[in-house]
Design brief:
- There is one protein chain.
- The radius of gyration is 23 Å and the shape is elongated.
- The termini are far apart.
- 28% of the residues lie in helices and 18% in strands.
- With 230 residues, the chain is of the alpha+beta class.
- The longest helix has 20 residues, at 25-44.
- Helix 1 packs across helix 2 (25-44) and helix 1 crosses helix 3 (168-182).
- The strands form two sheets. Strands 1-7-3-4 form a four-stranded antiparallel β-sheet, with no helix packed on it. It has a three-stranded antiparallel β-sheet with strand order 2-6-5, with no helix packed on it.
- The protein folds into two domains: 4-47 and 149-204, no CATH class; 53-146 and 219-229, no CATH class.
């Protein structure tokens, strides 16, 4: 994968600005990071799991709401799923809607046929909430897409999950902004970036070509009896 300095050099060459002090390195770095952030969005919205991280924490008895900061999750972009470890079992926790927030109280906790609490979660603002209110310190695992992390040092490189030719999106994005600062035409650059965008959107789909996604069973991996919440 290309480093920040390599991307910057490519952007300078694209607009014939090698050695041109009209554009500072820091300025071009900002342009490149903006483009890489947009590329991050493009790939995330394809829902092909290009970026997946996880973090775990323990519930506290009688505590239903946990701030993301308190559990060490400071770079959440999209939440992909929630798992709960109860004893030897790991199960998926379904989501509940905002309208259901007061439906179940701790005194009304519903249990599966194996005696485990059928929790549900909701991501609200900067917190994750559970119903019914936990009565034990079970482990929770959050699967999520992290935010884009800017390249800062010249040796910082583009994420390895990004195809090398997709980096052109950020290079052209930076070149367009450089031309705009010069107040010169960006038509040809914008046209080329549009082609790159279409190519990325097409190529990014069906990342696992051998096992494409099918219809998902929303009951899969959930404790028996969770339907009682509906």
């Amino acid at each position: 994968m290309s480093t920040l300095s390599e991307l910057r050099a490519r952007a300078r060459r694209l607009v014939d600005a090698v050695g041109n002090n009209f554009f500072s390195d820091a300025e071009i770095n900002d342009y490149l990071n903006t483009g890489l952030g947009e590329l991050h969005d493009l790939l995330v919205l394809k829902f092909e799991d290009y970026y997946v991280s996880s973090i775990s924490f323990s519930m506290a008895s009688d505590t239903a709401s946990y701030s993301l900061q308190s559990i060490g999750l400071n770079n959440l972009y999209k939440l992909l799923g929630v798992d709960l470890k109860q004893g030897s079992e790991t199960v998926r926790v379904p989501r509940y809607s905002f309208q259901e927030r007061n439906t179940f109280k701790s005194s009304q906790a519903l249990y599966s046929d194996r005696g485990h609490t059928n929790h549900r979660y909701s991501l609200t603002g900067s917190s994750i909430n559970f119903i019914p209110t936990p009565t034990s310190s079970d482990e929770v695992i959050l699967w999520y897409v992290p935010k884009y992390i800017k390249l800062v040092n010249d040796s910082d490189s583009v994420d390895g999950s990004i195809a090398s030719n997709w980096e052109d999106y950020a290079v052209y994005s930076a070149a367009i902004k450089m031309r705009q600062k010069e107040e010169t035409s960006v038509t040809s650059l914008e046209r080329e970036q549009e082609k790159i965008t279409v190519r990325i959107e097409e190529a990014a789909r069906n990342r696992d070509a051998g096992e494409p996604m099918g219809i998902t069973d929303e009951d899969a991996g959930v404790l028996a009896g969770h339907w009682l919440f509906r």
